[in-house]
Amino acid sequence: MQITPERSVEERAGVRLTRADIAAGLRELGLRAGDRVLVHSSLTAIGDVDGGADAVIDALLDAVGGDGLVAVPTFACKPPFDRRKSATPLGAVADRLWRRPEAARSLHPTHSVAAIGPGAEEFVRDHEKAPTAYGEGTPYHTLVITGGKILLLGVDQDRNTTLHTAEALAGAAYLSDIQATYVDDRGKHVTIPITAMAGPHRDFIGLDRLFREKGVVRIGKIGGAVCRLIEAGPMVETALEALRRDPAATLCENPNCADCVVQRGKIKAARLAQESFTLAAVAGDISDDPGQIARALQGEGISAVELTADEFADIGESLIEKRIEIAAIRAPGDNMDTEELADSLAVPLIVTASAREDFEAALRSAQRGHAWVLIENGGAPSEVYEEFYAGHADAPGLAFNPARFAAAAEKPFLGVFYRGRLRKHVEHFYIEDGDTSGNWTLPGMGNAEVKEIISMLRCRSYAGMMTLRSPLGGVENFRRAAAAFWRLLDNM
Question: Is 13 exposed, middle or buried (0-12, 13-18, 19+ CB in 10 A)?
Answer without folding.
Answer: exposed
